[in-house]
Amino acid sequence: MQQSRQHIRSHIRQQRQQLTPDFQQQAAHTLAQQCLAMPAFLNSQHIALYLSNDGELDTTPLIHALWQQDKHLYLPVLHPFSAGHLLFLHYTQDSVMVNNRFGIAEPKLDQRDILPAAQLDLICTPLVAFDRHCQRLGMGGGYYDRTLRPWFETGQGAKPVGLAHDCQRIEHVPVEPWDIPLPTIITPTTIW
């Protein structure tokens, strides 16, 4: 199964990276419009997003639109003391950014900017692949699976929403016991 999951990751990441800049830009704006019309976004005040990387659907138009609506946005930061876990830091246009060990920009760690995941209203999660049952295949580090486990087990706390390109949908995601399915995945054309 691990070999199958790695093959899927490699194949979908390659497809995602081959999308043209114009296609990426149009998809990002269309996705932002989809999200802004959804009650989950309209009714949320504290929203975790992520900065796109490796061909992921660009979240920049959505981030700017949510700032215009005076939403409080948060970005994931690798936890400095608890390996494999995320912190969520308040993100503004003035946030000082640094690259983490994966080369991904994140807000510079300042404990005054941390909001516990349980206090977020919505957590937008990146993913590599998904299926019609909203099973999510990530990059393999388990960061979001660990973050979402309390919500999955209790139904309390921030609701997760996956964001993806349509080309990331596959017939079946091979599932491991630690994988957390998402209640909703949004692409530029469909809400799953």
Automatic annotation (TrEMBL):
SUPFAM superfamilies: NagB/RpiA/CoA transferase-like. Transmembrane segments: none annotated. InterPro entries: FTHF_cligase (IPR002698), FTHF_cligase-like_sf (IPR024185), NagB/RpiA_transferase-like (IPR037171). Its cofactor is Mg(2+). The keyword Metal-binding applies. The keyword ATP-binding applies. It catalyses: (6S)-5-formyl-5,6,7,8-tetrahydrofolate + ATP = (6R)-5,10-methenyltetrahydrofolate + ADP + phosphate. Residues 1-20 are annotated as: Disordered. GO terms for molecular function: 5-formyltetrahydrofolate cyclo-ligase activity. Residues 1-14 have a biased composition (Basic residues). It comes from the Bacteria. Its EC number is 6.3.3.2. Keywords: ATP-binding, Ligase, Magnesium, Metal-binding, Nucleotide-binding. PANTHER family: 5-FORMYLTETRAHYDROFOLATE CYCLO-LIGASE, ATPASE INHIBITOR/5-FORMYLTETRAHYDROFOLATE CYCLO-LIGASE. Belongs to the 5-formyltetrahydrofolate cyclo-ligase family. This is 5-formyltetrahydrofolate cyclo-ligase. It comes from Vibrio zhugei.
